[in-house]
Design brief:
The structure holds two protein chains of two kinds.
Chain A (H helix, E strand, L loop, with lengths): L1 H25 L3 H26 L7 H19 L8 H26 L4 H20 L10 E2 L7 H20 L3 H9 L1 H6 L4 H27 L1 E2 L6 H14 L4 H20 L9 E3 H22 L6 H26 L3 H5 L1 E3 L4 H15 L12 H9 L11
Antiparallel strand pairs in A: 1-2, 3-4
Helix pairs in contact in A: 1-6, 2-6, 2-9, 2-10, 2-11, 3-4, 3-5, 3-9, 4-9, 6-9, 10-11, 10-15, 11-15, 12-13, 12-15
Chain B lengths: L3 E10 L2 E11 L4 E5 L6 H8 L7 E6 L2 E2 L5 H7 L1 E3 L12 H9 L7 H5 L3 H20 L15 H14 L4 E5 L7 H16 L4 E5 L3 H7 L2 E6 L2 E6 L1 H6 L1 H8 L4
Parallel strand pairs in B: 3-8, 3-9, 6-7, 7-8
Antiparallel strand pairs in B: 1-2, 1-4, 4-5, 9-10
Helix pairs in contact in B: 3-5, 3-6, 5-6
Classes of the chains: A mainly alpha, B alpha/beta.
Chain lengths: ~400, ~250
């Protein structure tokens, strides 16, 4: 009884939240609305890739391909059949979302069945190759717009649906890990030979994860196509795959919470930088000296933090204190570096717009996390209410054995 | 009818004959030891039985069915479970979760009900966990149920491997050097546990072990391999005094 109350309440809450998001974002300007939509899509993509990469341990770097399959398949169906069908409005969008998911799932099955017998770097190369194959096929097929792109009609400006998909994706992954069904996936990641000796069908487990992850990416692609109303192959190029991968790795491979949070941050941050302005309304620009000083400071700070982490025989509190100290001190270091570097005429004159720094920030944050915390920000941990209780009230919450 | 029958099982890796026409019978309830010097082909025998390798020739019959060439996971569900010589636990999973993976092949609910978190899936999870916990009690591991298995001391990791294999509810349990690296007290305890698995839980046990004291005290039948071939077979006292076995272990008198 309690189960159904909680269940229905949480589903109602999710639907209500998405409705709220939809209403709220409808009033925003199209720029902030679009960013919010993209953040939602990236959360879906990262969490679904995490199912493949983090939970099942299959290193796939072609996730954008499934995103693309979903986008183009549903886009093409919409362009061709929308006028001839009696379905309009939101039901059509949901229908297209399922079409995109189904198309990408089939693509996932086709790629997965032969290639998931491979391991590690071999699988990575195959998935990367598949991503490129899809992009090149799309670029050279005139019927779907080729390299000019495809105009998708009708457009649906519903950010709420995008976030609904993100919530469903997170919920599905969490449910999997909460039940015993999730354990074979984790077991395959940990040791394939041992899992198969325990009766786990390794290949079908991997393919299941791959198909499920691809389906979510395909659904996200369908929503993207119908939100933007225009898609080109460049949207789904290899760097999109890598950005999604970066989100998963930064958040902590295997952690749904980590993937979702780092996806939201990494999708939002670059756009946020673009909106920064100087007092006179021009885009915010910084000098080359400042950027250079920041990079050097990061290097120094990372070195210091690593030294603290590797310090033998220090207590956890002492370490935290030292790390905080190092971070504060690096502010001072940055000022010193900047003063010194302003003496270099070339760097002092160089002006870089903050928006252009997004790739630098990506790269630097990835390097920093890999040096300081190679298991990712959240490592294998998940957000849970018992954890919140523990932190807030310093009490042991009920221990959950399955969700790790 | 014997439980497991190897009939002239042979496997070649290129020019090397790792196991050569090995035949033996296991009856239900046997405590059967497989011994031999390093590189004799004992673990390869295990790998043949559990489907990691397919024999080049010969047959392996389990409960009247030929099983050579069957994939490992199918063999596990037929009722043969094993442990590994170089421990192969799932390091990031907790002790309890490791055992639940072993029990998972008896799951009845579909993937969908897990993804939707339906009541039958939750119930099944609870059931599998309860069963796993019960096995941990049998192997004295219940106090570390929530520990990451990588953080366990060595002897407990070995016991956890047995618990995980037991979770598949096998007819036949293959133990690959279960006492390796244990101190005398631990291996004494282990001997008692293995005997308990046979006497109280009705398992048939086939084990590889280098610790002669362990094998001679525990096993009722012993099969000796050297260079992939049978050199002796019989009870502990026969095998111990067999000149070929002594020669294989100590070298021949010149």
């Amino acid at each position: 009884m309690k189960y159904w109350v909680v269940r229905i309440a949480s589903i109602a809450l999710a639907l209500f939240a998405c409705y709220g998001i939809d209403m709220m974002s409808a009033g925003w300007n199209s720029y902030s609305q679009r960013i919010f939509a993209l953040v939602g899509l990236y959360v879906t993509l990262a969490v679904s890739l995490n199912l493949i990469n983090g939970i099942t341990g299959q290193f796939s770097i072609g996730h954008a391909a499934f995103y693309q399959v979903g986008a183009y398949l549903s886009g093409y169906i919409s362009v061709t059949f929308y006028d001839k069908m009696g379905v309009h409005g939101l039901p059509w969008l949901f229908l297209m979302m399922f079409a995109g998911a189904a198309g990408a799932a089939v693509a996932g099955l086709v790629v997965g069945l032969p290639s998931l017998r491979l391991r590690g770097d071999y699988l990575a190369i195959v998935t990367m190759g598949f991503g490129e194959i899809i992009r090149i096929i799309v670029e050279n097929t005139d019927k779907i717009g080729g390299s000019y792109g495809l105009n998708v009609q009708p457009k649906f400006l519903h950010v709420g649906v995008i976030w609904l998909l993100a919530i469903v994706c997170i919920a599905v992954c969490r449910n999997l890990l909460k039940t015993a069904h999730g354990l074979p996936f984790l077991a395959v990641r940990e040791d394939e030979i041992a899992s198969s000796a325990m009766g786990v069908n390794v290949t079908s487990t991997k393919v299941t994860a791959f198909v499920l992850g691809s389906a979510f990416a395909g659904a996200a692609g369908a929503l993207l196509a119908h939100y933007e109303g225009f898609i080109t192959p460049t949207t789904f190029a290899m760097d999109t795959s890598f950005i999604i991968l970066t989100m998963v790795v930064l958040g902590g491979t295997g952690s749904i919470t980590g993937s979702a949070i780092s996806a939201a941050l990494l999708a939002y941050l670059p756009e946020y930088l673009r909106t920064l302005q100087n007092a006179d309304g021009t885009p915010l620009a910084v000098t080359g000296s400042s950027v250079m000083a920041a990079l050097l400071t990061v290097a120094v700070a990372v070195g210091a933090i690593r030294a603290v982490i590797n310090m033998p025989g220090a207590s956890a509190q002492k370490r935290t204190l030292y790390i905080l100290g190092a971070i504060l001190a690096s502010g001072l270091v940055k000022i010193i570096f900047q003063i010194a570097l302003l003496q270099v005429p070339y760097l002092a004159k160089l002006h870089i717009e903050a928006g252009q720094l997004r790739m630098v920030i990506f790269a630097v944050s990835l390097v920093v996390i890999m040096l300081i915390r190679p298991q990712g920000i959240f490592a294998h941990h998940e957000f849970s209410w018992s954890w919140v209780k523990k932190v807030l009230f310093r009490k042991e919450g009920p221990k959950t054995a399955v969700a790790s | 009818m014997s439980l497991l029958k190897l009939n002239k099982a042979t496997i070649r890796f290129g020019g090397l004959v790792a196991v050569n026409e090995v035949s033996f019978d296991l009856e239900k309830g046997d405590l059967f030891g497989l011994i031999g010097p390093n590189g004799a082909g004992k673990t390869t025998c295990f790998n043949l039985i559990t489907g990691v390798y397919t024999p080049t020739s010969g047959e392996i019959v389990f409960q009247g069915k030929q099983i050579q060439g069957t994939p490992s996971n199918r063999i596990a569900s037929l009722g043969i479970a094993r442990t590994f010589q170089n421990i192969r636990l799932f390091p990031a999973l907790s002790v309890l979760e490791n055992v639940v993976v072993g029990g998972f092949l008896r799951h009845k609910t579909g993937l969908f009900s897990a993804l939707a978190y339906l009541p039958n899936s939750i119930k099944e999870t609870t059931r599998l966990k309860d069963e796993a916990y019960h096995l941990l009690e049998i192997l004295d591991l219940e106090d570390v149920a929530d520990t990451r298995s990588a953080d366990l001391p060595y002897g407990k990791q070995r016991r956890l491997e047995i618990a995980r294999a037991m979770a598949t509810q096998p007819e036949l349990l293959l133990l690959d050097e279960p006492a390796a690296g244990m101190n005398p007290q631990e291996s004494e305890d282990l001997m008692r546990t293995v005997r308990k698995l046979r006497d109280e839980h009705g398992k048939t046990v086939l084990l590889i072990e280098h610790d002669m004291k362990f094998v001679m005290n525990l096993c009722e039948k012993i099969f000796v391999l050297d260079h992939g071939e049978q050199i002796a077979y019989g009870g502990p006292s026969e095998v111990r005094n067999d000149p070929k076995v002594i020669a294989a272990y100590l070298g021949e008198a010149v």
